[in-house]
Design a protein that fits this description.
Elements (H helix, E strand, L loop, with lengths): L2 H59 L4 H8 L7 H22 L3 H5 L1 H36 L3 H8 L11 H4 L7
Amino acid sequence: MNPTIVVSIVIAVILLYVIITYNRIVHARNMNKEAFSNVDVALKQRYDLIPNLVETVKGYANYEGDILEKVAKLRSDVTNINERSGLETNFTSDIKSILAIMENYPDLKASEGFIKFQDNLVKVEETIENARRYYNGTTRNYNILIQKFPNNILAKLFGCKETEFFEVDLVTRQTPKVNM
């Protein structure tokens, strides 16, 4: 067999492998970005509930403390996953404080606005949990893809870096509960 043909075949196989691997990495990275966007959308839905929550509590409790102001200020556009995780920890902790305050007002717990808020909060929390799971799954898949040999060599050449998981502390791992 002609050495030129053998070299050409080897180069073609290597080039084909590089193209296929690059496309798989691009696909995995875009799926991960989409998953982060889904988490962000779900979190925005939760943040959008906050004005209603604040007004409901103020209307019944005339409560204008630091916690309500802090929660209202937490509606920000953080794009880094580590910053978003930290924000979620603070946000959930403050939400739980507000819900504890609400427990002291039976009229508030029975109001139509509060019941609607509670239902919406449960739905949004479930959406957030599902979005986090999906994001962490795509993060795992992407990281495995770029860490495997020989993909790791190509990933370094393409400038691919590992993606961080959406980590939350024990406070955030518990869904806020409202006891009626």
